[in-house]
Amino acid sequence: MLEKIQGEQTDQLFRAILELKDLDECYAFFDDLCTIGEVQSLSQRLDVAVMLKKKHTYDKIQSETGASTATISRIRRCVDYGSGGYNLIVDRMNEQTEGSTEEN
């Protein structure tokens, strides 16, 4: 799958995202780059992955996120058998949350 998206344009996009410094810059960039629906869809997918990693049921995920069972199942496959991207970022987000909790 990765080879299907790799290329100069995608590299440029990912490098641009890595250059963003804070949440305000992210909002500005993604507001220009994507439609509202695209950003909402990406956000929903990440939310589903977070909930799957927390072992929530499909029913709870569907009711809280509005994601279809097909979307949840697809994300479940990615979490379990994909490239590891969801696991990487969700684990990293959890580490940051735990770190900020310990500091307080």
Question: How would you describe this protein?
Answer:
With 104 residues, the chain is an all-alpha fold. It folds into two domains: 1-33, no CATH class; 35-104, Orthogonal Bundle (Trp Operon Repressor, Chain A). 82% of the residues lie in helices and 0% in strands. The protein has seven helices and no strands. The chain has helices spanning 2-5, 8-19, 23-33, 36-53, 58-65, 69-81, 85-103. Helix 4 packs antiparallel against helix 5 and helix 4 packs across helix 6 (69-81). The longest helix has 19 residues, at 85-103.
Proportion in β-strands: under 5%
Q: Which sequence of SSEs, written as H and E, runs from N to C?
A: HHHHHHH
The CATH class of the largest domain, by name, is Mainly Alpha
Tell me the total number of β-strands: 0
Largest sheet: none
Rg from alpha-carbon coordinates = 15 Å
Distance from first to last alpha carbon: 41 Å
Helical/strand content category:
mainly alpha
Total separate domains: 2
Name given to the CATH architecture of the largest domain: Orthogonal Bundle
Report the CATH superfamily of the largest domain: TrpR-like
The residue-averaged pLDDT reads 94
Question: What is the CATH third-level topology name of the largest domain?
Answer: Trp Operon Repressor, Chain A
**What would the principal axes of the Cα set say about the shape?**
globular
